[in-house]
Amino acid sequence: MVWKKITMVFAVMIFGTALAFCTAVKAESASAIRYFNQQSGIQVSTVPYGNNEEAGNYVQAGDAKLYYEVYGKGKPLFVFHGGGVGTPYEMGQLIDKLRQDYQVIVVSTRGHGRSEIGHSPFTYEQKAEDMLAVMKKVTNEPAVILGFSDGAYTAYKVASMYPERVDRVVAIGAGTLKPGFFSGEMKVEDLEKIDAAFIEQQMKIMPEPERYQEFCDNYMAFWSKMEVGEEFLKTIQCPVLLIAGDEDDHAPMVTMVEAAQYIPNASLCIVPKAWHSAFIDNFPVTWTAMEIFLQTDRAKLTGSRKVAYNRL
Length: 312
Known about the structure:
alpha/beta
């Protein structure tokens, strides 16, 4: 009721502007969405990021058609969500803030949401090529990349392979990684037991829902062999802000500290009382760290001083 009254007041004061604004809100809110295991009473945004056809676009990347959405104006900033059961909507609160000052491009990675799976084996080289296809479609200038978990590792790979395309990276929950850390199975039927509404939602959005279990199998096989270490991380030359939840068991804090040591121009923010999704668990600290990093002139982003371990 309060929102309706406010809208009516604005309609009287500036009818044309208010009408356009209300139309945009209505379009963005047309298709409700949730992120995996979203707790009751929590809504990260009123905008259904990842399922907002009004802002949606497609680009062909290799053997898969990828879906992305564009919001706002300004310097291009790409958002790469988490993998497996990840969705752009989980990063909605960050996107809401970022789109006020940036042109935000929200990408659904292959096999997620409205993007196709394709038939090529999963590799991070492939993921980087996928993102490059979207980046080329949208802009020619160096962009900011915000990545979470799987999306952060993809951001690392893009920055390493195509340094001229990347201005800086914000990486949440992506430290060093040894093969076998992520292993086991990801069964759709088990995911349904945790969050049936989310799986039903994804099945409706996916262009190939009959391949959901195939995707899960191939995705976990890929992740079980993943290795991210010093040799690779040293190839990333752009400024990087690593953000780590102090209770993260997917990217334990020690692995984030290691990554910050290896990436030449990296800074690290440890978010207290936060799990893997630090931006949901403790948004104020996460956002403050990001905002300072994003607003600082690149020439001044020299990273933290690398101090050797205190041991004999």
